[in-house]
Write a structure and sequence with these properties.
294 residues; alpha+beta; Uridine Diphospho-n-acetylenolpyruvylglucosamine Reductase, domain 3; Enolase-like, domain 1; five-stranded antiparallel β-sheet; 26% helix; FAD-bd_PCMH_sub2
Amino acid sequence: MDLTSVREVVDARTAGGWRPGDAWLAGGTGLFAEPRPGLLRLRDLAGLGWPPLTAGRDGLTVAATCTVAELLAFAEDPGGPWPRGRAFVARCCRAFSSSHKIWNTATVGGNICLALPAGPMITMAVALDGRCRLVTPDGAERTASAEELVCGNGRTRLAAGELLRDVTLPAAALERRTVLRRVGLQPRGRSAALVTATAEEAAVRAVTAFTVTAATVRPVTVRFPAPPTAAVLRRALEEALPPGLMLDDVHGHPVWRRHLSLHLAEEARRRLAGETGPDGGRTRAADPDPAGEG
């Protein structure tokens, strides 16, 4: 879509101070997807040259300008570190309701900052305890968890002119057992409900966490010091998912989305526990990767 109010596109390295009407430009797939009245100048991040991915002992740092295709290529590298974590990251990448053409342009940071409930990079970052590094227009830095950063449908806690620099996924989170369950109205369509479950395996720590996205206006996570029973999980999610938190749009009614979230969470719980349900613990709904576990 043409942004008819934009008057100039400037290099972020030399753009000077932040002005009203400015916006950061990375991949642009979200920025150009709808009218942006009042937008006057785009500050292009392409020239900053941030390494897309940096793997180290502490974990994986994903630059905001890293494309989905670059992240997927890393996740599917058979010789890379954290096989469980990379398998989970790959499944999140493939949860996009878009073409490979978009994957080569859309960025991880853009998907997070757009803050759409169905954003799979939000799911990935929240489920893997992602820490976001934020930079203010004057160069100061602060950090926030991905779960804190995304606070509503299309809403984040970014201040005016603040930039998401990168997201770090801790090594410990990348080593967890993971399960992903997803439902959409179409096999490759937008997610109507997406539930992830992760479990620690260290003897001194056995935290199990369930994260609900796509069905809710913001990410919701419930955590347990030990694997929960079906009743405990359901009770916790019923309390954490009040009707007002469920998304209501053309892709699904809130009551339906809440039901799906509870159903998918129970499937994920059974898979982590090594149990099987009536359909073997796998959803029959429109999930292109029904196994979804690592």
